[in-house]
Specification:
Elements: H1 2-5, H2 15-23, H3 29-61, H4 69-115, H5 118-123, H6 126-168, H7 170-177, H8 180-217, H9 219-224, H10 228-281, H11 288-300, H12 302-329, H13 339-345, E1 363-371, E2 377-386, E3 391-396, H14 402-409, E4 417-422, E5 425-426, H15 432-436, E6 439-442, H16 453-458, H17 466-475, H18 479-483, H19 502-515, E7 520-524, H20 532-546, E8 550-554, E9 566-571, E10 574-579, H21 581-587, H22 590-612
Parallel strand pairs: 3-8, 3-9, 6-7, 7-8
Antiparallel strand pairs: 1-2, 1-4, 4-5, 9-10
Helix pairs in contact: 2-12, 3-4, 3-6, 3-11, 4-6, 6-7, 6-8, 6-12, 7-10, 8-10, 8-12, 10-11, 10-12, 17-19, 19-20
Amino acid sequence: MQQQQEKDFTRRLDAGLWLKLAGYLKPYRRLLLLSAAALVVSALCDTIFPLLTREAIDRFVSAGQTAGLAGFAARYAATILVQVASIFANCWLSGRAECGINRHIRLLGFRRLSELPFSYYDQTPVGYIIARMTSDTARLGETVAWGLNDLIWSGSYVIITAVAMLLLDVRLALIVLSVMPVIAVAAVWFQKRILAGYRVVRKTNSRITGAFNEGIMGAKTTKTLQRERANCAEFSELTHTMRTASVRAAVLSALFMPIVSTLGSVAAALVLWKGGHDVFHLPGLLSIGTLAAFVQYSTGIFEPISNIARIFADMQASQAAAERVVGMLETEPEISDTPEVVARYGDSFEPRRENWPALRGDVEFDGVSFHYSTGEEVLHDFSLKVEAGQTVALVGETGSGKSTIVNLVCRFYEPTEGRILIDGVDYRERSILWLQSHLGYVLQQPHLFSGTIRENIRFGRLDATDEEIERAARMVGAESFILGLEHGYDTQVGEGGGLLSTGQKQLISFARALVANPSIFILDEATSSVDTETEQRLQSAIAAALKGRTSFIIAHRLSTIRSADVILVIRDGRIIERGSHRELLRQRGYYYQLYVNQFREEQVRASWEQARA
């Protein structure tokens, strides 16, 4: 999957890509333009100094006089003050722009990630996303705020200096300028190879970030499988690849700059040779002051040219980051509301709740077929009608389509064929937020956010009062253990809820779902990862949570769904049996066999635990 995401976009410096990126930076255009103007002023001051040197030599040194020296000194000092002010303004403006750009791109990226459906996260490695939001974004902020400004200063200085040299002496100017085509050819040759090297670096960096994430998240599994040595070997190979590519790119960049400097030195030597000959053998053709100014120009013009070469190398390196960040920002959600729906109901960030209809909870699958991006069909011509307030349990083998059904109900995915109706209306005619704000979803492995128990329950509805939070906790039976903690509702849960047991996390996740007062409840094997005692407590929580609400329960333990209104046995995306618990037992079909086998296993387990005790 990562290879699919890490594709190459271009093979050379792409102006169109940078223009796209500029489109995301509208709030900072004014800062960048002011910074660029300050750099143009600074470049103009830099080109004035050699002219002042020329005047000093020809007017005062060669003439042996001091008349007008005070005025000259004042102009020189004023030029210095203007340059200092322009440099200060550029540093202040560029620093603000860099920090702002980093923040702005990360906000845009985070917003886009929040808009993307589950399918994006199914296909995209975590390392890829983290690298885009951290190192790539930082690299872009630095390049845009400082690199492009340096390019403006260098370009302005080269242009103004070239004009000044041509006005002073065309012959000497042509000697200096004749070196530039050679530098241009070298730049084209080097830029292709530098960019290719940095693309490898950015790709490998994403894989390294992913390896870090997997190593941290899977530390317990790594130790139990004794994979430390194998993981280190794989990580060492990744870092070796990145080191090799980084060194190659750095060597190419390092070679380019000395080549530019050498060519600049050759041009300066030719100016001294030709200009010196004219000064001493052709009196009146060229003054000593003009020759001195040319020497300054010829030695100074190649520093910004070298600077331009460095900036292009940096931009080539940053383009690999720009391609990926822009690619992420331009990723279109596979599931989104139509413009008509957005106009009426709003979107996830600007909802028009006043236009939202109430949600009763009637759910209907009308000839629904679905397949994932891999092309494998999971559901085929699936039809189901659930009335508001009914509890529907889904039973079946792994991969039969149970989770797909509830994910379609939640509109985490959409049918590839057919319709899903909520309260008799195709849910694509209503906003995604409208539906999902009426959902309560409890997973098999509950996830808590870093913070307190109170904060985690409030995530279900951010405007919930403390009284509503505590009422939800009481309803699901969580208050008894919460009040037993030292800090009660203000107890920190740790990263991912790691300071609490699985059962405690599950009870909090139930309270979090319940505080939102959802019309539709989804329980995805919510009790399969807890012990029997905790499961019994959760059963009370489930009964309280589901009362009067449409609910879908994916169940592994069949004892937890005996009170469901309808039990559906799913195989290969189709309903092979349906009915209440008693009805299915009387049919003595697949469900009956599954229930009997599971009952025997529980009896054996209970006997073994009793004997062990």
